[in-house]
Amino acid sequence: MSDELSGFTIGVTADRRRDELASLLERRGARIVLAPALRIVPIADDTELRAATRACLENPPDIVMANTGIGMRGWLEAAEGWGLGEPLRAVLAGAYTVARGPKARGAIRAAGLQDQWSPDSESCEEVVEHLKAYGVAGKTIAMQLHGDRQPECSDALEAAGARVIEVPVYRWAPPTDPAPLHRLVDLITGRLVDAVTFTSAPAVSALLRAAGPSADSVLDALRNDVLAACVGPVTAAPLRRHNVPVISPARARLGAMVRTLVDELPQRALNLKIAGHVLTLRGHAAVIDGELKPLAPAPMAVLRALAATPGRVLSRAALLRTLPRGADEHAVEMAVARLRAGLGTPGVVQTVVKRGYRLPVD
């Protein structure tokens, strides 16, 4: 057990590997908000997949572009179910195979096939550049799709003279229950999560679609206060297009993304010396002299406001603006009382008679 992320709240938008990611973060002390942005829907009985498979058998591809492990496994399993497993494997074995990442490579090798090349960046753009240099004019390319169509890749290859067979193995669909995703949108805009993790580029678009009119507010929060963590550069690309700063590991792995969060989040915490104590503000908790003190949202909001200008007196009216709409000055007094009780350390929150409250900095 580790407490490197204790006091921080992290949103998880993944679906298929959400439990694994949540467990990695919880073991380091984080509080998790599970909000799958999308779900994968296999289409083994889909007429498009069957037609693409037939096209590959009738006109064997010169090049195979394997985008995902789950997609390659799903394609081969579907072909097996149609009695076409061996013919498909034989056709794929004769092609120049590019694996976009290690999971796709693993699925290829598990099927007894061999890949010839893989990009460092795991990006579609790097694969396209490599194939153009390899030479695609007059050649047939079987492109296993990563959920949705990738027109930027297929168009670039067709423009270079290739014939592209798109192989749709699964599709992204909205989550069965959209409520957790809408709640995550509210938490992001309210700055009540410290970070949000993304494991696929379509999840970014799904989150912004779910936000609707609040999409700009979500992007503003991600640009300034809520850390966006992506598993790799492909996932990060849509956020970077919106000028959102992103952290992602050098290698696209869940464990590596978690380690990046462990390195980054504590550095963003505010540290102050108050009334002879060391006070650190984390997402939903304060740390006083090394001891974690979880706080409810209202006391935490008051503490953040006071900590933003340590030493300065804030009136009840000023602190009221940090609380939910409909609160009154009595709610401020209650929040301050709960804050003092939660901190359990006298003198950290000081009353200045007839003026308000402050944190007395050393």
Topology:
Elements: E1 9-12, H1 18-26, E2 31-34, E3 39-42, H2 47-58, E4 63-66, H3 69-81, H4 85-93, E5 96-99, H5 102-110, H6 124-134, E6 140-144, H7 151-159, E7 163-167, E8 170-173, H8 179-189, E9 195-198, H9 201-211, H10 215-224, E10 227-230, H11 233-241, E11 246-247, H12 254-268, E12 270-274, E13 277-281, E14 285-288, E15 291-294, H13 297-308, H14 316-320, H15 329-343, E16 350-352, E17 356-358
Parallel strand pairs: 1-2, 1-9, 4-5, 4-6, 6-7, 9-10, 10-11
Antiparallel strand pairs: 3-8, 12-13, 13-14, 14-15, 16-17
Helix pairs in contact: 3-4, 3-5, 8-9, 9-10, 9-11, 13-15
In short:
The protein is built from 15 helices and 17 strands.
Count helical runs.
15
Low-confidence stretches: none
Strand order of the largest sheet: 2-1-9-10-11
Portion in helices = 40-55%
Percent of residues in beta strands = 15-25%
Question: How large is the radius of gyration?
Answer: 26 Å
Mean pLDDT: 93
From the spread of the alpha carbons, the general shape counts as elongated
Distance between the termini: 34 Å
Number of strands: 17
Q: Mind summarizing the main beta sheet? A: 5 strands, parallel
